[in-house]
């Protein structure tokens, strides 16, 4: 009986080892399958990601045209995209911009000012060329009245020279007289010789009794040697 029991124990141990080995094999196989599944899932995910990237690259629009690619449908569709023009910002016509610098406007204003200046100069030249009749009196203790026609633009020295030429005919003392020896007196004012009649007229120069030059024959205009 002792021998029989020993053989039975050995058999049971062998069976237990075989089951243990089978279980280990099954566990190893299950682990392999699990790892394989994980690799398959990773491969599928990588493939899907790669497909999406390729699809994005294919469907990226160019500067003029846009192409929509549908991988599930082999028919390619081309849809032209019309570029939108950006509106340029311009001046608001309702806003007052007269205070801003404007070369064109400034040039027009300059031309207008030059035109007005030229018209004024021409008008003054016309005034200067107008004739005036001057009644004067040579005073040598008594008055000797004479009349001369001059231009408004003539200087007083020019007027005195004409007076000398006119008085030489009647007064011998004027043969050696020049304008430097003469004074032009108007309302007790000595008139400088370098001024013109125009200077006094345009500035409306006044004396004690009114305008210096209204060229009235009744004025007291005296010339003294």
TrEMBL record:
Short name of any one Pfam family annotated for the protein: XAP5
Chain ranges passing through the membrane: none
Signal peptide start and end residues: none
Domain FAM50A/XAP5 C-terminal intervals: 130-222
Cellular component aspect of the GO annotation: nucleus
Region (Disordered): 31-79
Domain of life: Eukaryota
Biased composition (Basic residues): 49-59
PANTHER family reported in the protein's UniProt record: PROTEIN FAM50A, XAP-5 PROTEIN-RELATED
The protein's name in its UniProt record: Protein FAM50-like protein
Protein species of origin: Acropora cervicornis
């Amino acid at each position: 009986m002792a021998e029989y029991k020993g053989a039975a124990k050995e058999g049971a141990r062998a069976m237990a080892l075989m089951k243990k080995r089978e279980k280990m094999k099954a566990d190893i196989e299950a682990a392999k399958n699990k790892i394989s599944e994980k690799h398959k899932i990773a491969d599928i995910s990588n493939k899907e990601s790669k497909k999406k990237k390729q699809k994005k690259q294919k469907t990226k629009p160019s500067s003029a045209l846009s192409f929509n690619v549908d991988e599930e449908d082999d028919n390619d569709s081309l849809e032209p995209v019309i570029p939108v023009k950006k509106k340029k910002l311009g001046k608001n016509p309702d806003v007052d911009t007269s205070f801003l610098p404007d070369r064109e406007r400034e040039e027009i204003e300059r031309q207008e000012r030059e035109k007005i200046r030229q018209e004024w100069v021409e008008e003054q030249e016309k005034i200067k060329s107008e004739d005036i009749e001057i009644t004067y009196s040579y005073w040598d203790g008594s008055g000797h009245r004479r009349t001369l026609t001059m231009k408004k633009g003539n200087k007083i020295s020019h007027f005195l020279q004409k007076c000398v030429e006119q008085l030489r005919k009647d007064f011998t003392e004027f043969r050696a007289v020049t304008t430097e020896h003469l004074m032009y007196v108007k309302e007790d004012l000595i008139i400088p010789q370098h001024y013109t009649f125009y200077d006094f007229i345009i500035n409306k120069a006044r004396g004690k009794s009114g305008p210096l030059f209204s060229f009235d024959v009744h004025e007291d205009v005296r010339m003294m040697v």
